[in-house]
Structures are given as structure tokens and as C-alpha cells.
């Protein structure tokens, strides 16, 4: 929903309605992950994408129907001879898509959710997508670190969903949860999709050089909150790094230690050291490698610079397990020359590490393209609940 939130709210504030279609579960080689959204407005405007073009036409028609009759629908799209698979995905994947009408009456908490997202506060939305009682479908529970708002149908179900969603919210993960009709954990009949809106992951870039400017631009495009830090005030300026969320003048290792002590670094944070100057990067890496909070730690430099850096870090007392967490020389072997090409190389290594990619050309591989935890088994959809 994040990518369609602004136009969704625009109609919500004026009292209008829109159809919100969300990928709630994927199987095999689906093109987009759970949580991808598409919005169909009352005037026919479409924002967002669910599959890169495979099912959007069918979802548009379904969204127009949902706006008209207000009945939420859970539908499956994929390749099969079964009539239930009404639209084919050229990628061979399977998507479960939930389509609901959103207006002030159906989603009164939407403005509060947007407020939390804009303020980088963790918040998640649990939506009932399957239930034997049709009146439960499309109800929302807003989950925050210390409680919840809303009502999906019963207090027992509210508390069960909130308890289970807390861990997903902390990890920034989307998932489908299964319960009995009243929230029984061992039962079946109710499925709930939890969409987590954790704050943007951070990228900390140390070294105010031209490579850092290119990396900041690409990282912002990828959805990171970017900080550039350098001790040299003449280079660390907002004018030189317009795509960074903040530019810090200070000694890198001191700034990082302060961020860690304040709890402002988590296990989604990536750290890129581009200074290749031992007086800056050795104290910085000593702090970083002794922490287990980072998703990625990379350092720029030649192989000789890398070997010298390792020797200095060993002299500082770091062990081999800590040194093994360092990606250096930084990036994948793309033959990069320019700052922009180098930024792509660095981002490619981070993405490959995040999703388990090999970095090899896809044309030479026989394994599936996507390396995430998409389901291979495809359970049947429940029969649609009959409206009362």
C-alpha cells in the first residue's frame, strides 16, 4: 500500500472510494512480492502494479466492480488448466490478490497509518482476507509496537492477530496468518494478511566523494534512508549530496558509535565505507565489525588496500569471524569505471546478499529466478463467503 498511499488518501479525504488490490500471497516464480499494491480510483485512474502487466487488466475490471458493490474479493491468478485461474502470468508464477473498497467508513484508521509511515514510525495493517462470515472480510487491525487499534470481529481474534504480528512488524516482514474463525491458533477458516510498514532501512555512507554522491542517489531510488558522513566539512555539504537524507560532519567512528548507542541502527542497516584512508576507515570498521546490527558492511579500496586494512584490524584485536563480515573490495565484478557504475556494483552486491542471489547471469542458470521464500505448494482458495 505504501506506493499508492498518497492517491488513496486524496480520495479518502474527500469522502470518495477506491479499490485497493494487494498481493497477499505468492507461489513459485511470481513477479512481485506479497504487499505489492494497485489502486483503482472512482474516476478510473490506476496507480501501482501487481505483476508488471500480466494481471492488471483483469484486476482493473474487478476493482471497478468492488467499488460499485463494496464486496471484498480474494482471487488467484496463474497458469493452469483449471478455470479458477482466469488470467495467465507469463512468468509462470501464481498470485493471490485481495481487492477491497477503501473509504472513510471501511478504513477509518487510514490517516493515522499514513501519519505513522510519514513519521518513520513502525506500523502494520492486518486485513481479514478469508472468513466463513462475509461480514469479517476486509476488516482491519492496526498494529503498533505496543498495542493495536481497530476490530476484525472479536476481541479474541484481535489479540491473537496483534500478538503474532508484533514479530513481523519488528522484522519489517509481510505475511499471511491463518486462524480459526474466532482467532484460534490451531484452527482454520480465517486468513489475515499483515502488511508491515517499518521505517525505511538505512544506508550509512562514509566518505564525501563523488562515488558517495552516486551511491546516495541510487540508494534513495532503492528506498533507503541515506546518511553521508565525513570529517571534512568542506566536502560534507548538502549541496554536494542532494539525494542524501542527511549529511553529517564528524569523525566516522564517533558518529557510528553514537548511532549504535542510541539504538538507531538495526539489522537492515547497510554500511559503505568509501574513504579508503586508514585513519578514517580502520577505527570506523573496528566499531562496525564488533556490532552484529548490520545487514552489510562493505569497504572500497584496492586489494593491497584491503590486505593492509585487514592487518590493521587484526592489530586492533578483531578476530577472523568478525573480519569475515567485511565485504572488500566492495561490490560485484561488473567492470565498473564511473561513480555511477560503481554504485550499481555496490547495490548489486547488497541485493544479492539480501535475497541469496549468485551474481551470475540469469541466462546461464537453471534455478528459479526469485530467491525469496515464495511457497512452492499451492493450497486451494476457500470458497467465497456468502454475503448476508
UniProtKB/TrEMBL annotation:
**Which residue range or ranges hold the XdhC Rossmann domain?**
203-350
Instruction: Describe the location of the XdhC- CoxI domain by residue ranges.
Output: 12-78, 122-180
Q: Which domain of life is it from?
A: Bacteria
Q: Which InterPro entries match?
A: MoCofactor_Util/Proc, XdhC_CoxI, XdhC_Rossmann_dom
Gene3D superfamilies for this protein: NAD(P)-binding Rossmann-like Domain
Family annotation (Pfam families): XdhC_C, XdhC_CoxI
Matching PANTHER family, A to Z?
A: ALDEHYDE OXIDOREDUCTASE MOLYBDENUM COFACTOR ASSEMBLY PROTEIN, MOLYBDENUM COFACTOR INSERTION CHAPERONE PAOD
Name the UniProt record assigns to this protein: XdhC family protein
Origin organism of this chain?
Cryobacterium shii
Amino acid at each position: 500500500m505504501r506506493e499508492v498511499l498518497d492517491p488513496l488518501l486524496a480520495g479518502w479525504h474527500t469522502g470518495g472510494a477506491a479499490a485497493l488490490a494487494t498481493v497477499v500471497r505468492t507461489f513459485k516464480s511470481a513477479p512481485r512480492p506479497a504487499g505489492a499494491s494497485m489502486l483503482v480510483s472512482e474516476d478510473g485512474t490506476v496507480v501501482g502494479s501487481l505483476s508488471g502487466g500480466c494481471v492488471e487488466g483483469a484486476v482493473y475490471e474487478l476493482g471497478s466492480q468492488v467499488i460499485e458493490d463494496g464486496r471484498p474479493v480474494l482471487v488467484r491468478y496463474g497458469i493452469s488448466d483449471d478455470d479458477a485461474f482466469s488470467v495467465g502470468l507469463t512468468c509462470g508464477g501464481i498470485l493471490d490478490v485481495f481487492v477491497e473498497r477503501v473509504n472513510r467508513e471501511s478504513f477509518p484508521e487510514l490517516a493515522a497509518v499514513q501519519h505513522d509511515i510519514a513519521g518513520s514510525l513502525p506500523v502494520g495493517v492486518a486485513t481479514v482476507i478469508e472468513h466463513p462470515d462475509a461480514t469479517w472480510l476486509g476488516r482491519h487491525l492496526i498494529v503498533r509496537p505496543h498495542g493495536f487499534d481497530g476490530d476484525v470481529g472479536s476481541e479474541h481474534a484481535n489479540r491473537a492477530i496483534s500478538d503474532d504480528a508484533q514479530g513481523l512488524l519488528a522484522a519489517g516482514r509481510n505475511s499471511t496468518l491463518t486462524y480459526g474463525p474466532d482467532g484460534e491458533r490451531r484452527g482454520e477458516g480465517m486468513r489475515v494478511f499483515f502488511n508491515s510498514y517499518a521505517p525505511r532501512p538505512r544506508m550509512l555512507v562514509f566518505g564525501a566523494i563523488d562515488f558517495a554522491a552516486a551511491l546516495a542517489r541510487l540508494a534513495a531510488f532503492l528506498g533507503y534512508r541515506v546518511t553521508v558522513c565525513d570529517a571534512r566539512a568542506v566536502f560534507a555539504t548538502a549541496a554536494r549530496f542532494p539525494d542524501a537524507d542527511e549529511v553529517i560532519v564528524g569523525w566516522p567512528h564517533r558518529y557510528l558509535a553514537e548511532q549504535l548507542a542510541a539504538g538507531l541502527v538495526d539489522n537492515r542497516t547497510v554500511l559503505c565505507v568509501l574513504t579508503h584512508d586508514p585513519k578514517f576507515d580502520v577505527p570506523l570498521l573496528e566499531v562496525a565489525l564488533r556490532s552484529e546490527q548490520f545487514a552489510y558492511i562493505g569497504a572500497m579500496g584496492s586489494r593491497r588496500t584491503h590486505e593492509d586494512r585487514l592487518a590493521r584490524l587484526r592489530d586492533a584485536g578483531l578476530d577472523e569471524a568478525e573480519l569475515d563480515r567485511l565485504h572488500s573490495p566492495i561490490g560485484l565484478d561488473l567492470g565498473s569505471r564511473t561513480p555511477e557504475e560503481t554504485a550499481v556494483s555496490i547495490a548489486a552486491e547488497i541485493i544479492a546478499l539480501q535475497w541469496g542471489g549468485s551474481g551470475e547471469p540469469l541466462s546461464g542458470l537453471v534455478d528459479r529466478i526469485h530467491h525469496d521464500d515464495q511457497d512452492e505448494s499451492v493450497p486451494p482458495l476457500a470458497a467465497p463467503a456468502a454475503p448476508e
